[in-house]
């Protein structure tokens, strides 16, 4: 009887390991932006330039950018900074324990530690404070230095020539 119990445990472990390996292999073929969409987030919460990412079965992740990271303005009001490495734990519609993303408020950089999706709104949490924005504003990934306004600036330069 004990041998059967050990065999069942071994089969369960091997099956779980095979499923985890399959999930990891499937995730390896998806971009970080596509993985965001699987977690019910728009790709635009992550700027262009991801070099690589790691996603573990428990939802914890790490995303790596080249150089020193990425900074850009949002709506002329907020300056955002993504460090070279960002990390956190993702669940459908929720990112917790976010590290490496900060916003400049007045003269101080504050870490964004949580992002939640509720319907068509995204809420970014800085400690006990939160700011919400329409989901549609994050349909496209921003570019470092110029943010979401890159295409507008480029279009204006082309139109002026």
Automatic annotation (TrEMBL):
InterPro entries: At5g01610-like, DUF538. Keywords: Signal. Residues 1-20 form the signal peptide. Pfam families: DUF538 (PF04398). Coiled coil: none annotated. Gene3D superfamilies: At5g01610-like. PANTHER family: EXPRESSED PROTEIN, T31J12.3 PROTEIN-RELATED. This is Uncharacterized protein. It comes from Panicum miliaceum.
